[in-house]
Amino acid sequence: MNLKQLRLGLWVLVGLVAAGLVVFLWQESKTEQPAFSQTSLGTIGGPFNLTASSGKPFSSAELNGKPAAVFFGFTHCPDVCPTTLARLTKLRRDLGKGNDALSIVFISVDPERDTPAEVDTYMKLYDTPVIGLTGTPAQIEQVKKQFGIFSRKVEQPGGGYSVDHTATVILLDRNGQFSSTIAMEEGNDVALAKLRRITA
Amino acid sequence: MKRMLFIPSLALLAACGQGGKANIEVSDAWARPTRGDAPGAVYVTIENKGGQDDRLVSVMTDHAAMAMVHQTEMSNGVARMRMAGEINVPAGNSIKMVPGGTHIMLEGLRTPLHTGDSFPLVLKFRESGEEKVSVRVAEAGEQ
């Protein structure tokens, strides 16, 4: 084999690798995308029954007719939960459509400590309406499953426990259908655009 | 290239001019209100104006049974709260604690924190010793 043939051979090899890469990436994008949209659009949310902070039963049907921002947390959470609720109340204010345009919903992932009365005093820290919900451990597990929420109790060094939990806010349209999410790290302008979409 | 070296050496010279000691200033200490027996979180700004690195080793307050530096970590949308250990405050740097990150957790509050109240907090540094600061309890909706 002379040098010319070798060079040609190498170029053919480069071409084959490049073609392979294109096919591989195309396959990847094809397999990943439908899986994602399926879990997000098809299965997040759905009807649920919990207990309101008043102690009365709460059906998710009470949310219908109004878009909602749903956040899962616990009242003994000093940083992430008050930060997220403060952020949501500010975003609703920035939206400029009044408190009736969007329900802010807090669902406890710590039903052992979060009695309706506990949740009630927690919600009253805010000078704007926030719907606080809790329930039996079985009810909470069910709702967590419906919304794809992870949570786990973690023992604290000085006694007591904290709860690791999904801090992503789930946005529902006025029919209770999943619309999108707001992540902790997401900028307020993006979050506001998402809220505008469901409150339009 | 010469200039790139020149700037850090200038900074180093300036730092040496400070006497080579850490000089810690704690400011803008605030917390959100709490209720019941729930823990609170305090956010502070720590500035090291000196020429020596320093470390925040512990936090004390009469207002709670325990004060610990905690860190909220996010992964895959899940928030986890963990002990942060000692916080390094390099010479000439400042650290601003913001919600959703490093914070001082107060466990076993003597009384819940009410908006408008304030209480003293002592931060202990390895080099600079104790720094006292007054913590302002803000509105629940404060960002």
What's a concise summary of this model?
Chain A has 200 residues and is an alpha+beta fold. Chain A is 44% helix and 22% strand.
Radius of gyration of chain A: 23 Å
CATH fold annotation of the largest domain in chain A: Glutaredoxin
Question: Can you give the mean pLDDT of chain A?
Answer: 89
Low-confidence regions of chain B: 12-18
Mean pLDDT of chain B: 89
Please count the beta strands of chain B (DSSP E, at least 2 residues each).
Answer: 10
Strand content of chain B: over 45%
User: Biggest interface, and residues per chain?
Assistant: A-B, 36 and 33 residues
Q: Any guess at the CATH architecture of chain B?
A: Sandwich
- What's the CATH C level of chain B? Mainly Beta
CATH topology of chain B: Immunoglobulin-like
Please, how many domains of chain A?
Answer: 2
Number of discrete helical segments of chain B: 1
Helix content of chain B: 10-25%
- State the end-to-end CA separation of chain B: 42 Å
